[in-house]
Specification:
By secondary structure, the protein is α/β, with parallel strands linked by helices. Helix content is 34%, strand content 24%. An eight-stranded mixed sheet has the order 3-2-1-4-5-8-6-7. α4 links the parallel β2 (91-96) and β3. It is globular.
Length: 253
């Protein structure tokens, strides 16, 4: 089968390849991701999958609460998200076009005895061509701000979802405050975000993502604001979606 045109930006791949070796350093360049996963991503998925009935109420506090759920982690990088999901019982496949990061993810997985994660170095467009409607859940965490065509990448991601499946998304909002806080303060002034990591032109509103998802037969069911506190050095949910947001949608039957 001919290779599908992808939305991968070479400069993005090169940037993240350059510090792949420090990916699992919680105080390194992926510091915000390390903090975000237990504070935002995992709780958001727990509540969303419980609400959707994919996790039963009696299992929601168990360490293996995601057991039996097939999850596709789009833009899985060095495995920061895929690994905890697998440790919670999910059957996880991680797809990322950055070879160095996929190698890091495969190597780090070995520290856990018998942990199985299917890491694939490929574009989501190529992968989805042969894996349509195979997954209960797709995670699309902090991918939108790093690709050339968000619509195309979302379309390919949703194609992997079974009808009734859930997609979880996080990204920066394309607003003045998104630019001021996400780029000027966190990136330029404080250096918490790596230099050049984000551009306001690549941020996107949750309204626009919802429109794309609607086009692909997905209904947005939840949007929550997210905030990183410089005082507390941690993430939390908020009613304000103007800087950063988490959203969840269901693929309709």
């Amino acid at each position: 089968m001919a290779e599908v045109k992808s939305s991968v930006i070479k400069s993005e791949v090169d940037r993240y390849s350059s510090y792949a070796h420090t990916w699992w350093n919680p105080n390194g360049r992926t510091y915000l991701l390390h903090k975000m996963i237990p504070a935002i991503r995992i709780p958001f998925m727990k509540s969303g999958l419980t609400d959707a009935g994919l996790v039963k109420n009696e299992n929601k506090d168990k360490s293996n609460m995601f057991e039996g759920i097939k999850i596709l982690d789009v833009g899985s990088g060095g495995g920061l998200m895929a690994e905890p999901l697998a440790l919670m019982g999910a059957q996880v496949t991680g797809v990322d076009p950055t070879e160095n990061l996929v190698d890091v993810a495969k190597e780090h997985m070995k520290i856990h005895e018998n942990l199985k994660i299917n890491y694939i170095c490929d574009t989501i467009e190529n992968y989805s061509a042969n894996n349509k409607e195979q997954y209960d859940v797709v995670t699309f965490f902090d991918v939108a701000e790093h690709v050339a065509d968000v619509r195309q990448v979302l379309k390919a991601s949703v194609e992997n979802l079974k009808p009734g499946g859930q997609i979880f998304i996080t990204t920066w909002n394309k607003t003045f405050m998104g630019w001021l806080y996400g780029i000027v303060i966190l990136q330029w002034i404080l250096g918490i975000v790596p230099p050049g990591a984000h551009k306001i032109s690549m941020f996107i509103s949750h309204q626009q993502i919802s429109e794309y998802l609607k086009e692909f037969n997905c209904k947005t069911v939840e949007v929550r604001g997210v905030w990183y506190s410089l005082w507390k050095r941690d993430w939390s949910f908020t009613n304000y979606t103007g800087v950063w947001y988490a959203m969840r949608a269901v693929k309709e039957e």
